[in-house]
Amino acid sequence: MAANARRTLSVFTDKYSRQFNIQHLREEDINAAFQVIFAVILDDDIIKALGFSSDEASMQSLESFIREHVNTHLTVGCFTSETDELIGVDVLYVRSSNDNLRNYGPEYGESFCNYMKYLKYMERRQRYNFAVKFIKFLTSLGLFILPEYQNSDIEKRMLPIRTGVASMQGIRANGAALIGKTMQNLAQRLRYKLLEEIKEFRDLEYLIGAAIFPIKIFGKITILRTSSSSSSPSSSPPSSPPSSPPAQKRPPMVTDLAIDDD
């Protein structure tokens, strides 16, 4: 692989015979990723419900927050094969059980403060429902796709990539709070387990009346296994001489597991 090449995670052709590459971003892709995200972010269900469009301070805070989370080791992009245009971005991030999350004051904007309450609440529910057994889990700020490509089944191709990205980081658990039947049904088809259905209630009073419920939390847990010889120690071949190069470590294999109900 060339030094500046992207790591390719998947290649697919949509129903219009257009080919796409799902890849990790390079540094030079970061600005294009921001352009995709901010072209469509006001159409995001939560962003719309919280009234960001009429709250300038919140929009500035949101832009800074998104910029802090877009990077080359977790953020995944969907590129057209023909022109190499970036048309979709999944802003993935990792949460740890000992994260010291920042608090935001009113100067950051009311909508943004409510958005942070929402994120923290959904992260707590994910941890409680399936990630409490693990130190870390992977989740997403959102999957952002340019309007002209939103009917190309790109979500169906990008959502399963999250499991592979998590495994590359040595993380077994990945999940998300999903809104809308399209994404919720897609998660079920991809063998994500429905962990919790959230309806309007007091803890989310800033979203009461918004047409986003029920919000459904889905999760998936995988076993990370490395390839190893099945031979017993007594039958193992003798060690290679010192001059022989060490065997290359194989990438981890990922096996989906149903999540325990306990």
UniProtKB/TrEMBL annotation:
It comes from the Eukaryota. Residues 226-262 are annotated as: Disordered. Residues 235-249 have a biased composition (Pro residues). This is Uncharacterized protein LOC118280381. The lineage of its organism: Eukaryota, Metazoa, Ecdysozoa, Arthropoda, Hexapoda. The gene is LOC118280381.
